[in-house]
Amino acid sequence: MSLDIVYTAAAHATGGGRDGHVRSEDDRLDLDTRPPKEMGGSGEGTNPEQLFAAGYAACFLGALHAAGKELDVDTSGAEVSAEVGIGSTGNGGFGLAVELDVYTPGIPTEQRRRVAERAHEICPYSNATRGNITVTLSIVD
Fold first, then answer.
1. pLDDT tens for residues 35-55?
2. Is 0.90 surpassed by the pTM of this model?
3. Which of 56, 49, 24 is nearest to 34 (CA)?
4. Shortest CA distance to 141 belongs to which of 95, 99, 109, 115?
5. Cα–Cα distance for residue pair 75/65, rounded to 1 Å
6. Domain 1-46 CATH (choose: 3.50.50.60, 3.40.50.620, 2.20.25.10, 3.40.50.2000)
7. Spatial distance between the Cα atoms of 100 and 121, rounded to a whole number of angstroms
């Protein structure tokens, strides 16, 4: 796949990775990372899964608005929540699973799924993860 890159984000991790620090090159993001308690950490900082969930939710919402415009559907009240789970793959590695909860008030039921599915085709995060991790779309009321 050939891309015409229009923006590149850069971030740097220091310290112990999950137990360290991350900073974006432009200093707009600058925070400590800590493993969650469920993974033996203190839970007193953010973690890569939270950062991924925030990025995916924001990106998917933008894609949802683009899909709404394309399909002539008003998505102005839409919201997206992303849950990112991490677990063992069974072979010594780790994998992720994502659930996207898509809230689209005021959109007729028969159009909700189509707008969400079109957003899933548009969203760069969805395109990056497709075929690599399980991503579940849930249409919520």
1. 999 999 998 999 999 999 999
2. yes
3. 49
4. 109
5. 6
6. 2.20.25.10
7. 14
